[in-house]
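User: I'll paste a sequence; please echo it back and then give the predicted structure.

Assistant: Echoing your sequence first, then the prediction.
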Amino acid sequence: MRFAIVLLFCLAYCGCGGPRDDLAVSSQKASDFFASPVSLALAEAAARGNIAEMTQLLKDGGEVDSPGRFGVTAAWWAVRTKSKNGFSFLLSRGANPNPDVDTITILEMAAGYEDSGFLETALSYRPAINRVGRSTGDAPIDTAITQNRTRNLELLIKARADLDIQAGSGGLPILQAIYAGRYDYVHMLLLAGANPDKVIAGGKVSLVNQISRRYVDPDSDAFVWRERVIRFLRSKGIEAHPPANEGKRTKPLPADLR
């Protein structure tokens, strides 16, 4: 839900922190972004996945990365409209897989989509994987975590995303995961090399103190994954404890935790 709201907000009010160029949310058309007839035609063809039309437009002198409003490109519009064919074709013709735009980025959108194909396609072209959205303040890994996109998080980890980036509202990916109640993601990030000793907010917020402050349902999967996180930390010489007055689990723990 947050991703959808952010997407609409950023398309409507891009350039957070500076003068806003208002764009009505109710009017989301390629013509809102592309003034040049050729660029507009290319973006619209990309949204339809019309390979023949895109081929002809580029042959006739169209520029694959010609920027429109907020710096968006036809490839960006293809992802925005969830046209996998259009996106793949433009990348094969040299389009930037993650242009530096004044709105939500291609990788943020792709990381937030349920269909991992957009992210897989983008990552195969070696984009700026840690680029933080100017309007959202998030890195792609933050979006994957907050949108509960397990496969996308796995893809970003495999692509060597910065696991300790301080970008989103959570400050660190492992903290974003805790705030989202995804201790399985915390465990995944730690196994992949995230730094468990990182702190933010002047040294007051850390993985350990967030574990100690956040209650979970004792009979939930989150409890099990939190226990795995705690034991992983202990193996590294780091002590972490759940809230002292949290309820007791009634279900047996999985075999690996007994």
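The longest helix spans residues 221-235. Residues 11-27 have pLDDT under 50 and may be disordered.
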